[in-house]
Structures are given as structure tokens and as C-alpha cells.
Write a structure and sequence with these properties.
Elements: H1 15-24, H2 31-41, H3 55-64, E1 71-77, E2 83-88, E3 94-101, E4 107-110, E5 114-116, E6 131-134, H4 137-155, E7 163-166, H5 176-187, E8 199-203, H6 207-210, E9 220-224, H7 230-236, H8 239-242, H9 245-253, E10 263-269, H10 277-286, E11 292-298, H11 312-324, E12 328-331, H12 335-342, H13 348-353, E13 361-362
Parallel strand pairs: 4-7, 7-8, 8-9, 9-10, 10-11, 11-12
Antiparallel strand pairs: 1-2, 1-13, 2-3, 3-4, 5-6
Helix pairs in contact: 1-2, 4-5
Bound molecules: S-adenosyl-L-homocysteine and iron/sulfur cluster.
Residues 117, 119-121, 124, 126-127, 170-171, 204, 224 line the site of iron/sulfur cluster.
Length: 364
């Protein structure tokens, strides 16, 4: 793939890649461990403070790599502690990153993988923008680093991100190589050391890339299904015209799964559209029972869309019906989860209009 910038980001390098780079350029490869520790353990991004890194290597890095982390240009806090960030990259392009608090002091970061998205789902605000560009691996890792730094400054040392989901702007498997590299950097035990079980990638169903998931670290997979009939799915997601439900389910069956892991199917619930009795029947017939978990996402309304969110009683009915047919099911009801669903779909102005965010607004 063509490089995005002339100088790649330092954070696009996995530890083995960085060791190779050092070796090729006459530096001692073990210094890579020290550098990884400065950046990913101590969160020190200022090269001048890397005391045990040789001067010549610092010069080399300055000349050949970019060490900046994305800038947080706006952030807003919701009542339940969910915080939305607008982050800007070297070329001033921006994406949204959302931090969602969870139980036991856990925090999940929902990152973007592209600026915009080429898939063009009809219900999705990002889909209406088209694709501007892929993010390089370091820009994905950079979202994690920028928010970590923000939390350290604003919430104290104890406040740490523990989970990551690829559910922001963009189709992560369309940017396969960079998302894979970013995942490897995030999982590196000598660096951030995030557990594989705490990373989830959501895809709209790019079959050729799903077939290559054997090359990916074994994280969790979520599939945006949204319909169990081809006609409806094609209307919602043009990708279904290229890879229909048969091909999608066939490819999913071949994803290698570790013990006690399962695939999550995301199902957007749209009022009087895909929330009918026949949709439940089709879903029950389509999904392999024991190993499937369905996550129902009530549609997040926004002004330009004619789709509506079903009533609470309709959502509960849909869930109960699926469960009584043996399918494990959750509903994204909480506010933070709402924003997660909307991650990348809503502009900040729109958020305010929709009342997702209150009062507190900071610029940093
Ligand atoms: N491109 C990937 C990941 C990003 S979208 C994908 O499509 O899976 C993350 C999730 O938000 C997807 O399941 C997507 O279908 C859902 N989503 C998009 N727009 C939404 C909206 N307006 N309301 C609720 N969920 C939405
Ligand atoms: Fe892209 Fe996902 Fe939005 Fe579809 S739902 S347009 S794949 S970001």
C-alpha cells in the first residue's frame, strides 16, 4: 500500500519491525525495547526526555519518523461518563474517538480506522461522507495514546483504558494492513499489552478480508448483520450486493475462534423496517444457535435520516423472541452505548442538538 505520509509515524512500527529498522541502520536492536517502554509504558512522547536513548538514534528518528501524537481538538463529556473526542492528524483531517466507562473501573476506547468510509451504508452518517483516506497504523494507535495522555492529565494516573473496539468511523477491514499493524502494536506485551480478549473489531462484511482473518491476532469479531433477508440487507448495506448473506455466513464459519469465544452479530433495529416477526424467524434460521450472540442496536436517529428507532416495548419484544428461540441477545440501551453506536456518525453540533452531551465542554 502507498504510504500515507512521507515520514511514517513511529507508532506504526511493531516491536519486531522497529528492531529490524534499527538493525538495518546500524543501531543496537535492544534499544527498541527501551524506546517502547518510554512511549507505551511511561507515555513519554518528548524525545528529549528519553534519557537512555543514544543521541544518534534520536537524530535518526527525527529525520526519518514522525513522533507526534494526534491532537485532541474538542472533547465533550456525557452524564454517564462517556467522553467523545475529536482528534486531528498531521494533515488536519479529523476523526471521532469515544471513551466509554464500563464496570470495574474499565474504560473502552472506540477508535476510527479511516477518515470517512467507502461502504456507504444508507443508515450511517459516516457512510454519507464517502472515504477521504485510510488512517496509518500510528494514527490508530495515536488515538489510544492521545486519550491515555488526556486521562492521565485530567483524571490521574489510575485512570487507564483497558479495552478497545474498532467501531468508530470507517470499515476496519478495508484498511486491513494498517489495522492489523495497529492491533499488533496495541497488544505488544512490552508496550501497552492490551489483552486479545479486550479488543473487538466490527466489520460490515468484506468477505475476502474476513477470509484473511487467520493473519490477524485472535481478537473478538463483531459482524454488522442488520438484516436476515438479502433484499433488506442490500438496501441498508450496498456491500451485500457484492457479498450476500450466504457468502458472508460461509466466510464467518471459517474464522478461527479460540475456546469460549464467539462471534457477535450486530443487528440495527429500525422501526417498521427490520423489526418484524418475519425478521425474527429469518434470523433464527440464519444464525448458528449455540455460538451466536446478537447485539441489538436501536437505531440512533439523526436529522438527515428518515429511519426511526422502534419503541422500547418493540425492542424488548424482539429481544424476548430471539431469546426464546435460543439466541443469546443483548440490547445497547445505555446512553454511552448509544454514543458508541453513533461513534463516527454524528457531528458534534448534532450531538448537542440531540442532547447527547451536556454542559461540560473543554478544549485542549
Ligand atoms: N464499519 C464497521 C465499524 C464501524 S460502525 C461496521 O459497520 O461494522 C459501528 C457500528 O455502528 C456498526 O454496527 C454500524 O452498523 C453501527 N451504526 C452505524 N450507524 C448507526 C446509527 N445511526 N445508529 C445505530 N448504529 C449505527
Ligand atoms: Fe462504513 Fe460501518 Fe458506517 Fe457502513 S456502518 S458506512 S461500514 S462505518
Amino acid at each position: 500500500m502507498k504510504p500515507i505520509f512521507e515520514k511514517p509515524s513511529l507508532y506504526s512500527y511493531t516491536l519486531p519491525m522497529f528492531k529490524d529498522l534499527l538493525k538495518e541502520n546500524g543501531f543496537k536492536p535492544f534499544v527498541a525495547d527501551q524506546l517502547y517502554s518510554w512511549v507505551y509504558v511511561k507515555f513519554e512522547f518528548d524525545m528529549e526526555k528519553w534519557t537512555n536513548i543514544p543521541k544518534a538514534l534520536k537524530e535518526f528518528i527525527k529525520e526519518n519518523l514522525d513522533t507526534s501524537i494526534p491532537k485532541i481538538v474538542w472533547n465533550g463529556l456525557s452524564k454517564d461518563g462517556t467522553r467523545k473526542f475529536l482528534v486531528a492528524f498531521r494533515d488536519d483531517k479529523t476523526v471521532e474517538t469515544v471513551m466509554i466507562p464500563a464496570k470495574n473501573n474499565r474504560k473502552t476506547l472506540c477508535v476510527s480506522s479511516q477518515v470517512g468510509c467507502a461502504i456507504g451504508c444508507t443508515f450511517c452518517h459516516t457512510g454519507t461522507m464517502g472515504l477521504t483516506r485510510h488512517l496509518e497504523a500510528g494514527e490508530i494507535v495515536g488515538q489510544f495514546l492521545a486519550v491515555t495522555k488526556f486521562l492521565k492529565i485530567n483524571d490521574g494516573e489510575e485512570s487507564r483504558l483497558s479495552n478497545l473496539v474498532y467501531m468508530g468511523q470507517g470499515e476496519p477491514l478495508h484498511n486491513f494492513e494498517n489495522v492489523k499493524l495497529a492491533t499488533e502494536v496495541l497488544l505488544e506485551p512490552k508496550g501497552l499489552g492490551i489483552s486479545q480478549r479486550r479488543v473487538t473489531l466490527s466489520t460490515s462484511g468484506l468477505v475476502p478480508q474476513i477470509e484473511k482473518l487467520t493473519e490477524f491476532p485472535p481478537i473478538n469479531w463483531a459482524i454488522s448483520l442488520h438484516a436476515a433477508h438479502n433484499e433488506i440487507r442490500s438496501e441498508l448495506m450496498p456491500i451485500n450486493k457484492a457479498y450476500d448473506l450466504d457468502r458472508l455466513l460461509g466466510a464467518i464459519k471459517k474464522i478461527p475462534l479460540k475456546a469460549h469465544r464467539h462471534i457477535t452479530y450486530e443487528y440495527l433495529l429500525i422501526d417498521k423496517y427490520n423489526d418484524r416477526k418475519e425478521d425474527i424467524e429469518a434470523l433464527v434460521n440464519l444464525l448458528p444457535k449455540r455460538v451466536s450472540k446478537v447485539n441489538l442496536i436501536p437505531f440512533n436517529e439523526y436529522p438527515e435520516s428518515s429511519f426511526k428507532r422502534p419503541s422500547v416495548s418493540r425492542i424488548t419484544w424482539f429481544k424476548d423472541q430471539l431469546e426464546s428461540n435460543g439466541i443469546t441477545c443483548t440490547v445497547r440501551t445505555q446512553k454511552g452505548d448509544d454514543i458508541l453506536a453513533a461513534c463516527g456518525q454524528l457531528k458534534s453540533e448534532m450531538d448537542k442538538k440531540l442532547n447527547l452531551w451536556d454542559g461540560e465542554e473543554e478544549n485542549s
